[in-house]
């Protein structure tokens, strides 16, 4: 039985994440399985130089966006691990705009970033698939807000869905 088929209650995550929870659909683990082929299809013909594209000044490059997705996945999975294992220590937030410049994503080959994406996704799926119902329902604190393991699965899938949508709507159509 998949303990992630019941969507989290609004009390299981910060209001900021409501759109991500919605974008995850009805089965976040299935979304996590089907998102990589979508990403690869979107980026299939992209060169390293094209992956440096920014749709507007001050926006992240495609490479930076991908590394941001990886960083966020790692952080959400780490939170899920800690909370799922019953750790009640409040977990800090993270500032994405501080992480992205220090990632040096634009200096990396796109293939290297995608290999990291695959490894992180495989690890995340193994982790979430290991949780039973009790672990999925556990609630901890992250960024000074309550969050459940179940909500983290939805937030993760929805976060990626959000960024795939941005790639489709703002990046790829505007590339010369």
UniProtKB/TrEMBL annotation:
Coiled-coil portions: none
SUPFAM superfamilies, A to Z: DinB/YfiT-like putative metalloenzymes
InterPro entries associated with the record: DinB-like, DinB/YfiT-like
All copies of domain DinB-like, residue ranges: 32-166
Protein name: DinB family protein
UniProt organism field: Hymenobacter lapidiphilus
Species lineage: Bacteria, Pseudomonadati, Bacteroidota, Cytophagia, Cytophagales
């Amino acid at each position: 039985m998949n303990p992630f088929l019941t969507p989290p209650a609004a009390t299981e995550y910060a209001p900021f994440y409501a759109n991500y929870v919605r974008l995850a659909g009805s089965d976040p683990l299935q979304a996590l399985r089907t998102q990589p082929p979508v990403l690869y299809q979107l980026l299939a013909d992209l060169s390293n130089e094209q992956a440096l594209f920014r749709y507007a000044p001050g926006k992240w490059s495609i490479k930076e966006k991908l590394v941001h997705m990886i960083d966020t996945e790692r952080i959400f999975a780490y939170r899920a691990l800690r909370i799922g294992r019953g750790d009640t220590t409040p977990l800090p937030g993270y500032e994405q705009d501080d992480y992205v410049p220090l990632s040096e994503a634009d200096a990396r080959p796109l293939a290297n970033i995608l290999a990291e994406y695959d490894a992180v996704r495989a690890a995340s799926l193994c982790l979430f698939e290991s949780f039973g119902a009790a672990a999925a329902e556990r609630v901890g604190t992250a960024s000074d807000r309550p969050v459940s393991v179940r909500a983290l699965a939805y937030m993760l899938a929805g976060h990626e869905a959000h960024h795939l949508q941005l790639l489709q709507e703002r990046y790829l159509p505007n590339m010369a």
